[in-house]
Amino acid sequence: MFTTHVAPLILGRGPATHLSRVQAVVALAQNLPLLAGNPLLGTLADRAGAPAALAVSAAVLAAASGAALASPVLRGAR
Fold first, then answer.
1. Range 7-29 average pLDDT
2. I need a labelling partner for 48 at 20 to 30 A (CA). Which of 7, 20, 29, 75 fits?
3. How many CA atoms lie within 13 A of 54 on its CB side?
4. Three-state secondary structure call for residue 3
5. Any idea what the Cα angle at residue 78 is, between residues 16 and 59, rounded to 5°?
6. Does residue 69 carry a pLDDT above 90?
7. pTM of the model
């Protein structure tokens, strides 16, 4: 969701002189949640099984998609 919808908007609005810096911050915003999310999902899969971890992943994805659809800024952005 972030990579395909929000990141291009951020990069498109960043100043041309600082594009590489903006892209570096976008890359951090994409990768830092993985540092927390992957161990948590791994622990959940270990304790409750892979179907539970997949269900949590699906719920988080659905919530993020719903938030994006509810956002007039993201819906109207071109």
1. 87
2. 29
3. 3
4. helix
5. 105
6. no
7. 0.69
Read off the tokens for 63: 């919530």
Between CA 53 and CA 44 the distance in angstroms is 6
Residue 70 tokens, joined: 């509810």
> How many whole angstroms separate alpha carbon 56 and alpha carbon 60?
6
pLDDT digits (tens, 9 = 90+) for 24-55: 998 898 899 899 999 999 999 999 999 999 99
DSSP 16: G
Other beta carbons within 10 Å of 67:
11
Helix locations, the chain, DSSP H: 7-13, 19-48, 50-70, 72-76
Centroid of chain to Cα 71? 15
Yes or no: say if 30 and 7 are a contact pair by the CB < 8 Å rule.
Answer: yes
Backbone angles phi, psi at 8, to 5 degrees: -65, -35
pLDDT (average), residues 60-70: 88
